[in-house]
Structure formats: structure tokens, C-alpha cells
């Protein structure tokens, strides 16, 4: 029997299988507050039979949102908006619920993917971004503000406060987002971290702040519930964060009791217009987990297609590359086979279900009709 369907234990959390629904940014929140969309989106995923469901990247402070539509958990209002969503999941499903705590850093204040994904300048209703160093993500953009001592403390306290709110919401586990070129990745990578204090320079110094964030979140979250970290395995840029760095970082995290970590091939540190694109596409074709759809998001990370590294090239919000097409077809095939295996008497119903799900993706303009025809 495949290990995929065997139980697992992470600290005090027991899951019936190893299937995890990955966090998928929806950009559908209002002022950081969950909406009816989150009830529907997370509710139907909670009934999937997976062992764990991870809620999308959830900003720990308003300035840490990727877009104005990002989900947040930074005050009583955003906490209250999530409470009925979690209550419904707990009432109707035994799935373990995880939350990804995040801060976008210099990649914040972006337009939604279907609006082009570019930086929203302050004059146009955006906000000043903060990062490890005052290095713009893309030439011509307003540089972020380098976090000073007070800023570092503020962000750390925001992570801690969000972790405590997540515990009150009965979240079973947390994942600290340190990948995709977001704030904690910006500290790790020498490309974006140009600091000269104790948080910059050597690898040990660059790892210091992300490790401090993890330690603070771990201390604020119930000890019997796991806390994991998401990291990008490599920047795919010469002189950037690499595999050996990831190994060293993972080793440090292991000494702190991490049981969950997700290492992905790909980054979001450098803009998409660099030589790393070819290497990333090769990695995706080899079947490893790919980047975060950076092409459409001014080189910025996005939930859109971890299955492909060449997504969103012509129209933001539509998966157009071969990798996305293959991933979607595979997902539909697995859904059909899995459901048919559970109930061999209703193959027609299984096909109808898969087709309906595919048509929903078309209606939401996530994929083109050509990608979801049955067969």
C-alpha cells in the first residue's frame, strides 16, 4: 500500500493520510477579511478526503499583503471574519486545518493577477513596502523601506499576534512563509539582503531574522501543534540563495523542532527577465515542484501555478503553458480514477463531476476551454 494513504503524526496532530491541499491565494478578501467565497472555496476542499488543508498565505499585517485582496489575520475584525469559515469546516469535516502566515515585503502593494500584477504606487492607492534592504524588486519601481530595529520588532510581533489568533481559531498547524521572494526570503537571499548589521552579510546573519520569526511563532503557538516553514530551494541566480544554503537553513530549523518543511524549486527574488527562466522550466519538465507563477506578477510570487514555471505569459490569470495543461489533465484524470475506484457503479457521475469542476475553472477564467475538454 502506498505511503500516501498511511496516517502521520506531527507533534500532537494526527492525520489519516499524507495528502495535503496546498495554500492557494484567492485575492478575494475585503480589507483582509474572509468573505463568502472563502466559505465556499475552503468548505468544499475540506470535504475532499485529504488529510490536511492549508489556508492561503495570510498576511500578518496590512502592509504585508501581496495585493489589496489578500487574506489577513492581524486584528479582531479579520479574526472574526474567519471564525464562521473555520467553524463550518470543523462541524462538517475532520480534516486538519493549517494556515500559512506570510509577509510579502517588497513584493507587497501589487495589483491582482488579473489586473496585471504590477506595483500599485502610493499615488494610485498603494502603500509603501518594507524589506530587508532598500532594493527595488524591479528597475523603475519605488524602493522599499529597509526595516530598522523598530520595524523588525513590529513585524515579529505581528507574526506572534497572528499565531495566537490562529490558535484561538483552532488552527491545527502553522506554516511560516519564507519562500517565493517574500519578506523572509528577502532576508535569506544575498540578492535582496544588502544589510551591514547582524542581519546581513554572512549566511548565518541572513538566516538570523527568519529563525527569530520561527522561534517567536513556535513559542506563541500551542506546543502540541506543529509549525512548519516553506522555503525556496534556490534562487536560480548566480550569487543568490542556493541548495547548500537551504540545507543549512533546514538543519537549523530541525534543531528547533520543525517537522514540516516544503522546499520548492523556484524563487521570486529576481524579476522574471533573467537567465533563470530556462533552468526553472527544465526543472518543472523533470517533474519537480515548480515556481510560483512569477512571469505575470512583475517577477512576483503568486499562487497561480506551482505546477509550471512558464505560466501567465500572455494573459494574467490563465494557465497557458504546457506544464499547466499537463497538470490540469493529470488532476482531472486522477479525480476520475479515484472517484471511480471508490464507487465503480457511477463512472458517468464521476465524469460529470470532473467536467463540472473543469467548467468552473473556465467560468472563473483560470484556464482556457481548450485545456479542460474531457478525454
Question: What's the helix and strand layout?
Answer:
Elements: E1 8-10, E2 13-15, E3 20-21, H1 36-46, E4 52-59, H2 76-92, E5 96-102, E6 130-131, E7 145-146, H3 149-168, E8 173-178, H4 183-188, H5 203-220, E9 227-234, H6 243-255, E10 261-265, H7 276-285, H8 322-342, H9 347-363
Parallel strand pairs: 3-4, 4-5, 5-8, 6-7, 8-9, 9-10
Antiparallel strand pairs: 1-2
Helix pairs in contact: 1-2, 3-5, 5-6, 8-9
Give a summary of the structure in a few sentences.
The chain is an alpha/beta fold and 375 residues long. The protein is built from nine helices and ten strands.
Characteristics:
alpha/beta, 10 strands, single chain, two-stranded antiparallel ribbon, 35% helix, 9 helices, 375 residues
Task: Characterize the structure shown.
The relative contact order is 0.10. The chain has 9 helices and 10 strands. The strands form 3 sheets. Strands 3-4-5-8-9-10 form a 6-stranded parallel sheet. The protein has a two-stranded antiparallel ribbon with strand order 1-2. It has a two-stranded parallel ribbon with strand order 6-7. The model is unreliable at 272-324, 339-346 and 367-375 (pLDDT under 50). The radius of gyration is 20 Å and the shape is globular. With 375 residues, it is α/β, with parallel strands linked by helices. Helix 6 links the parallel strand 9 (227-234) and strand 10 (261-265). The chain starts with 7 loop residues before the first strand and ends in a 12-residue tail after the last helix. Helix 1 (36-46) runs parallel beside helix 2 (76-92), helix 3 (149-168) runs parallel beside helix 5 and helix 8 (322-342) packs antiparallel against helix 9. 35% of the residues lie in helices and 12% in strands.
Amino acid at each position: 500500500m502506498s505511503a500516501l494513504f498511511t496516517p502521520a503524526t506531527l507533534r500532537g496532530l494526527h492525520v489519516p493520510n499524507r495528502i495535503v491541499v496546498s495554500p492557494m491565494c484567492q485575492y478575494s478578501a475585503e480589507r483582509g477579511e474572509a468573505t463568502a467565497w472563502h466559505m465556499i472555496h475552503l468548505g468544499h476542499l475540506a470535504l475532499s478526503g485529504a488529510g490536511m488543508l492549508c489556508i492561503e498565505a495570510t498576511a500578518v499585517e496590512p502592509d504585508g499583503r501581496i495585493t489589496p485582496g489578500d487574506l489577513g489575520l492581524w486584528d479582531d475584525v479579520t479574526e472574526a471574519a474567519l471564525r464562521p469559515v473555520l467553524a463550518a469546516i470543523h462541524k462538517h469535516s475532520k480534516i486538519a486545518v493549517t494556515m500559512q502566515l506570510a509577509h510579502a515585503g517588497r513584493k507587497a502593494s501589487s495589483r491582482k493577477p488579473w489586473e496585471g500584477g504590477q506595483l500599485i504606487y502610493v499615488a494610485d492607492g498603494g502603500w509603501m513596502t518594507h524589506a530587508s534592504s532598500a532594493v527595488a524588486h524591479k528597475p523603475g519601481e519605488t524602493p522599499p523601506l529597509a526595516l530598522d530595529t523598530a520595524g523588525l520588532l513590529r513585524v515579529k510581533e505581528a507574526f506572534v499576534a497572528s499565531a495566537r489568533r490562529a490558535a484561538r481559531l483552532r488552527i491545527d498547524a502553522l506554516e511560516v512563509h519564507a519562500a517565493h521572494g517574500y519578506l523572509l526570503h528577502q532576508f535569506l537571499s544575498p540578492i535582496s539582503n544588502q544589510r551591514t548589521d547582524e542581519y546581513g552579510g554572512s549566511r548565518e546573519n541572513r538566516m538570523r531574522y527568519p529563525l527569530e520569526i520561527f522561534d517567536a511563532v513556535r513559542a506563541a503557538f500551542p506546543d502540541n501543534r506543529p509549525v512548519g516553514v516553506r522555503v525556496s530551494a534556490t534562487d536560480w541566480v548566480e550569487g543568490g540563495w542556493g541548495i547548500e544554503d537551504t540545507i543549512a537553513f533546514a538543519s537549523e530549523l530541525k534543531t528547533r523542532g520543525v517537522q514540516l518543511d516544503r522546499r520548492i524549486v523556484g524563487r521570486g527574488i529576481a524579476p522574471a527577465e533573467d537567465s533563470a527562466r530556462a533552468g526553472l522550466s527544465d526543472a518543472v519538465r523533470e517533474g519537480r515542484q515548480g515556481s510560483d507563477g512569477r512571469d505575470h506578477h512583475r517577477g512576483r510570487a503568486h499562487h497561480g501555478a506551482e505546477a509550471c514555471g512558464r505560466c501567465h505569459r500572455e494573459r494574467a490569470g490563465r494557465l497557458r503553458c504546457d506544464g499547466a495543461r499537463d497538470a490540469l489533465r493529470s488532476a482531472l484524470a486522477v479525480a476520475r480514477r479515484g472517484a471511480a475506484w471508490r464507487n465503480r457503479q457511477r463512472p458517468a457521475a464521476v465524469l460529470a463531476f470532473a467536467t463540472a469542476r473543469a467548467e468552473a475553472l473556465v467560468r472563473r477564467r483560470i484556464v482556457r476551454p481548450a485545456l479542460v475538454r474531457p478525454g
